[in-house]
Design a protein that fits this description.
The complex is a heterodimer of chains A (about 325) and B (about 300).
Chain A (H helix, E strand, L loop, with lengths): L1 H10 L5 H11 L13 H6 L9 H9 L3 H18 L36 H37 L1 H15 L3 H9 L2 H4 L4 H28 L2 H8 L4 H37 L11 H8 L7 H29 L1 H4 L2
Helix pairs in contact in A: 4-14, 5-6, 5-14, 6-7, 6-10, 6-12, 6-14, 7-10, 8-10, 10-12, 11-12, 12-13, 12-14, 13-14
Chain B lengths: L1 H27 L5 H5 L7 H10 L6 H13 L12 H36 L4 H15 L2 H15 L17 H26 L3 H8 L4 H39 L4 H11 L2 H29 L7
Helix pairs in contact in B: 1-12, 5-6, 5-8, 5-10, 6-8, 7-8, 7-10, 8-10, 9-10, 10-11, 10-12, 11-12
Chain lengths: ~325, ~300
């Protein structure tokens, strides 16, 4: 309401805003003048009031298409996914074919990034390592979304004792930092002896869900008493159906933003676990494993560390940037400025 | 305020019991026996196995085990490592080093994080702001251990400004680089948080009022904007203490710092479950208490919180 009123009020002031601001800055008066937010009358008149209002998602999409941050990050993510699914499109060198004759050799034709200590092709290993790292990120995020989303939505929507119990449960898991908790689980004999992408995913989900649960809970609480929910209930929808059909779809925006950013942090967490030799087993090619293997070589042959690390940073960066772009697009209030 | 503190303290009790129970359950009650891990999975003489089970109270029902473990935790009777040292003595020796490391990292991120964050927030959209934003994103995207290796290589090996690894006594001066590595990721978060908080508060009504009544920009920024913007930052810094403890494992492994993270890592590699549980429980306690302190600080800084 007030946002619609302010431009009109401010337009009634005699001097034009541009002139006023220009004068002040040219005379360098000590006092700070807060910037005025005004919409020129011409722009106000141009708005087509007969057009149907866009949904949040359509509006966000219209905004996203123009954002370089979104375009760059989604192109990078598509590229990484394609590399993960079809690694053979990008290299014909077998990453497991290593000969010690090639140990730590510099780049040569056909092997653009050189060789590891074991004589494996670095480029090929970076390409083939994409799949494991990305799988950990994607499946952990999915798991966290399912568990944290359900817990958070139920806690926020029904409130009461369910909320209290779930909040305390979340606090307990929150008291263990992600890496610390993951270390405890991964060193359990049951996990240590069966290390795979799935055990890492399960471990990270166990300690990653409270964050999503908190965000979902907050978003659901914001929406559960909204007019459209009350209206749908008044029209005869059961409370649970109202939660599924109206509350959850309207609470998704902040959850998706956080999920996108934490996907990146899960990839980093996997690499950190692999570095501590508690992540993926050495038989699985992943960036984390390659970086961990390169640590002893960092002084003689830093490029062995550099390339898998660069691939990891670019991937994680893409997901974080995507999350940032989504946050801006899905929160029109922040976009205004 | 007293009531608030009391309520927060009472909320802490279930978290403490829950978290210790969780850790204990994970290590001692899940399939795959820590006792068989002690012998590297090889068969053990039944008498030895029975003695070990009695030593770790594993012959008792689960709740008795957990109770005894809590009692041992409170009395700091944490058992022995494989090499026969008292775990409590090992922790007492390693903890001050990690505390020094964490304090330095926290100072580093608070000072530089708030400084860069404030400038970026006040100049939103300018060159400095975008540079800081991009740099902080790259730091967040980079695993701590990669950062550690790179900085160790550059400053420790190639430039030779600092010692690449830390000596046994771990004096403050040798911990500078490890502390920077440890704090760098959080530094990026502090910058982003401060920046967001500042630029949000710039448009608050009370700032407009302060400006309208003729206060100088300096006074508006330092007294009105800064004080209100720093509240979430303080919360983050407190909560980050736990994260630093987790991150210390990696940092201490890279720089060979003889701290608690290093002890924990070695215990994990050797499969010393009892030591792992002891150290993690203590870290959890530190983390939970730090969160309590932050909550109280938060309520003290922002009186609105107390009445919610």
């Amino acid at each position: 309401m007030s946002e619609n009123l302010t431009p009109e009020l401010e337009l009634t002031t005699p001097a034009t805003p541009a002139a006023r601001q220009g004068k002040i800055s040219s005379r360098h008066i000590e006092h700070y003048v807060a910037p005025l937010e005004e919409t020129p009358l011409a722009a106000v008149d141009k708005v087509d009031e007969t057009a149907a209002p866009l949904s949040l998602w359509a509006d966000a999409w219209r905004n996203l298409r123009k954002q370089p941050l979104f375009i760059i990050s989604s192109l990078l993510i598509i590229l990484v996914v394609v590399v993960a699914v079809f690694p053979t499109w990008f290299t014909s060198v077998d990453p497991t074919e290593c000969t010690l004759d090639n140990s730590s050799l510099p780049p040569e034709p056909g092997h653009p990034l050189g060789f590891t200590l074991q004589g494996c092709d670095v480029y090929s290993r970076v390409i083939f390592g994409t799949r494991a790292s990305l799988m950990v990120g994607i499946f952990t995020t999915l798991g966290v979304l399912i568990i944290g989303g359900v817990m958070g939505a139920l806690a926020g929507y029904y409130g009461g004792w369910l909320d209290s119990i779930l909040a305390r449960l979340g606090d307990i898991f929150f008291a263990l930092p992600l890496i610390l908790g993951a270390i405890i689980i991964m060193q359990l004999p049951a996990f240590r002896d069966n290390r795979s992408v799935w055990t890492v995913v399960v471990t990270l989900v166990i300690f990653g869900w409270p964050q999503i649960a908190r965000i979902t809970r907050g978003a659901v609480i914001e929406n559960r008493n909204a007019d459209f929910v009350t209206a749908s209930k008044a029209l005869g929808l059961s409370p649970f159906r109202a939660l599924i059909k109206h509350v959850i779809p309207n609470s998704l925006a902040p959850v998706i933003v956080v999920a996108s950013i934490s996907l990146g942090t899960f990839i980093v967490a996997e690499a950190t676990l692999s570095f501590l030799s508690l992540g993926l087993p050495g038989s699985i090619m992943s960036w984390g494993n390659d970086i961990a293997a390169a640590q002893s070589q960092v002084r003689n042959n830093p490029s062995v560390l550099l390339w898998p690390a660069l691939a990891l940073v670019i991937t994680v960066l893409s997901f974080i940037m995507l999350g940032d772009a989504l946050r801006d697009a899905l929160d029109p209030k922040a976009r205004k400025r | 305020m007293v009531m608030f503190a009391l309520r927060r303290f009472l909320q802490l009790i279930p978290v403490f019991f829950g978290a210790t129970l969780l850790v204990y359950f994970l290590v001692f009650a899940t399939p795959g026996d820590p006792i068989s891990a002690l012998s590297g999975g090889k068969p053990m003489a039944p008498a030895v196995e029975a003695a070990l089970r009695a030593q770790y109270n594993l012959d008792q029902p689960f709740w008795v085990q957990y109770g005894l473990y809590l009692k041992n935790l409170v009395t700091m009777n944490l058992g022995q490592t494989f090499s026969g040292q008292e775990v409590s003595a090992v922790i007492a020796r390693a903890y001050p080093v990690t505390a020094r490391l964490a304090i330095m990292a926290l100072t580093f991120e608070a000072v530089f994080g708030i400084f860069f964050g404030v400038i970026a927030g006040l100049r939103k959209g300018k060159l400095f702001d975008s540079t800081v934003l991009v740099a902080s994103l790259i730091v967040i995207a980079m695993p701590t251990f990669v950062l550690g290796f790179v900085l160790q290589l550059i400053f420790g090996v190639q430039l030779g400004w600092v010692k690449p690894t830390v000596s046994g006594a771990a004096p403050w001066s040798e911990l500078i680089l490890p502390a920077m590595v440890l704090g760098l990721v959080s530094l990026a978060y502090v910058i982003r948080l401060t920046r967001a908080s500042i630029s949000e508060n710039m448009n608050a009504d009370y700032v407009r009022t302060a400006t309208a009544k003729g206060l100088s920009r300096r006074r508006v920024v330092t007294v009105h904007i800064l004080r209100n913007s720093l509240i979430p930052v303080v919360t983050f810094l407190g909560a980050d203490l736990g994260g630093l403890m987790g991150g210390a494992i990696v940092t201490e492994a890279i720089f060979n710092v003889p701290g608690i993270g290093n002890v924990l890592y070695k215990a994990i590699v050797k499969g010393e479950s009892a030591t792992v549980v002891a150290i993690v429980s203590i870290l959890v306690i530190v983390f939970v208490v730090a969160n309590l302190v932050v909550d109280l600080l938060y309520a003290w800084l922002d009186p609105r919180i107390r009445y919610v």
